[in-house]
Amino acid sequence: MATINRNGKSYGSADVSIALLGSIDYEITKLEYSVEQGHTANYSAGSADPTSYSMGKKEYKCSLGLRMKSFVAIERAAGGDLLSIKPFPITVVYTDENNEIVTDVITAKFADQGRSVGEESDLKKDFTMFCLNIDFNV
Fold it and tell me: Which residues pair with 52 in a beta bridge?
């Protein structure tokens, strides 16, 4: 079961479909993505309170959880190196609290590779993604 966290709001996997690298067959355990933009207060001469603001650069964040069966299949297809895969779209389609269909498209690539072995029989790993863009409600 996947948990989707979109800008701080969680959605259950029953209402979500995720496609990446041309397939919807990957076992995704978690997907989190958000965008933040810096803001700076501007002050006029003689004013102790801000009179306007400036907006800075956007920062996109994304992490992806996969079961071992899925990320090993992706590694094999990439010749063993997840980090060599070029940025790709991750398409997320789900139903929101108003029963409206929402589609988001994330452009990202793997920023790390490794294993996470614990006491659980369900082997999975959360990957940090290098995120270039998020298109909300496309």
Answer: 42
Q: Under 8 Å CB-to-CB from 35, ≥6 apart: which residues?
A: 7, 58, 59, 60, 61, 134
Q: One digit per residue, pLDDT tens: the chain, 138 residues?
A: 456 666 666 666 666 889 999 888 889 989 999 999 999 999 999 999 999 999 999 999 999 999 999 999 999 999 999 999 999 999 999 887 777 888 999 999 999 999 877 766 678 899 999 999 999 999
* Identity of residue 19: A
Nearest residue to 42 (alpha-carbon basis) of 33, 50, 34, 30: 50
Contact 115, 75 (CB under 8 A): no
* pTM as predicted: 0.81
User: What CA–CA distance (Å, rounded) separates 80 from 121?
Assistant: 23
SS3 state of residue 98: coil
